[in-house]
């Protein structure tokens, strides 16, 4: 299949997870979703990542975001690995892996979502299957892919950045704004180009015109 792009509908699938069978679109429901892949269980970088996602569960929940991991191993390994993840994350506070992890030992879903590592044609595991990379998909309630990030297997993700993008997308959908470089929630935003001069006076009475095409405004959101 062709590579997935922003704006595509996220492919639906059925899979076994650590929380039982999942029909992906049905599981997302009316929420946002983060699907994030891992090269393998019992690996150091992946362990730190899943512990961080478990720790940040309240941050995702208050944004109406469901998270689901996927790793190229079976359920038995996933359940065993969860104990290591919780031990690592629990060094400072109790940590529970409360989100599902998809079993994808045959790379079926990794292939469907093009999560494979093709940097080296010989990059295969002991079974001859391709390694997966660290891919992130942010998917909205309409099942549309809104963000794609692909990291090499050697580099852990920054989940502050992933949450920052979710905030940007959600306020953009709601308020007709975009966000500037290095934006964080609470910073000024950019009035969307589709908002006319007259509309801007009503919608954003405190906005500042820097250039005809660049208007910023404070935005109070919870």
UniProtKB/TrEMBL annotation:
It comes from the Eukaryota. Keywords: Antioxidant, Oxidoreductase, Peroxidase, Redox-active center. Residues 4-171 form the Thioredoxin domain. Gene3D superfamilies: Antioxidant, Horf6, Chain A, domain2 (3.30.1020.10), Glutaredoxin (3.40.30.10). One of its GO terms (biological process) is cell redox homeostasis. Pfam families: 1-cysPrx_C, AhpC-TSA. The active site is at residue 46. One of its GO terms (molecular function) is peroxiredoxin activity. The keyword Repeat does not apply. GO terms for cellular component: cytosol; mitochondrion. Thiol-specific peroxidase that catalyzes the reduction of hydrogen peroxide and organic hydroperoxides to water and alcohols, respectively. Belongs to the peroxiredoxin family. Prx6 subfamily. This is Thioredoxin domain-containing protein. It comes from Phlebiopsis gigantea (strain 11061_1 CR5-6) (White-rot fungus).
């Amino acid at each position: 299949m062709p590579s997935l792009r922003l704006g595509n509908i996220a492919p639906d699938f059925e899979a076994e997870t650590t929380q039982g069978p999942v029909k992906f679109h049905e599981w997302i429901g009316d929420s946002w979703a983060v699907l994030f892949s891992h090269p393998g269980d019992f690996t150091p970088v992946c362990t730190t990542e899943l512990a961080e996602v478990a720790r940040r569960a309240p941050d995702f929940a208050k944004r109406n975001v469901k998270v689901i991991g996927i790793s190229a191993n079976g359920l038995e390994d996933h359940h065993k690995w969860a104990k290591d993840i919780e031990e690592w994350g629990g060094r400072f506070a109790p940590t529970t892996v409360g989100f599902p992890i998809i079993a994808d030992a045959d790379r079926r879903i990794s292939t469907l979502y093009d999560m494979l590592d093709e940097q080296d044609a010989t990059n295969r595991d002991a079974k001859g299957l391709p390694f997966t990379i660290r891919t992130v998909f942010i998917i909205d309630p309409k099942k549309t892919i809104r963000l794609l990030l692909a990291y090499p297997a050697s580099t852990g993700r920054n989940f502050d950045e992933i949450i920052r993008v979710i905030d940007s997308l959600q306020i953009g959908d709601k308020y007709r704004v975009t966000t500037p470089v290095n934006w964080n929630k609470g910073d000024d935003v950019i009035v969307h180009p589709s908002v006319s001069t007259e509309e801007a006076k009503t919608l954003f009475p405190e906005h500042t015109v820097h250039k005809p095409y660049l208007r910023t405004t404070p935005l109070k959101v919870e």
